[in-house]
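A quick aside before the break. I want you to see a complete sequence-to-structure record at least once, exactly as it would be stored in a machine-readable document. Don't worry about memorizing anything.
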Amino acid sequence: MALSEKALFLLTLIARHDGTTPQAVLTRMVAERAEAIGLSPLLGRHFDELTDLPACERAGQNRYASGGP
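That is the input. The structure line, written in tokens, reads:
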């Protein structure tokens, strides 16, 4: 995704304030907006967990190999 310099600058300022990365700020903003418009049931409220997993580990048979959350 291409961001303008102004958008990246704002994300960087927010990230520095929050002590995180611009990517983490953008991920959080997208997740918050998705929940605000009612996508949380589709996400299963596991958005943060999904962002940390490689795509191959998101498949159903691998999702909760340890027995569940």
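Two observations worth writing down. The mean pLDDT is 76. Helices lie at 5-18, 22-36, 40-43, 47-51, 60-63. We'll return to this after the break.
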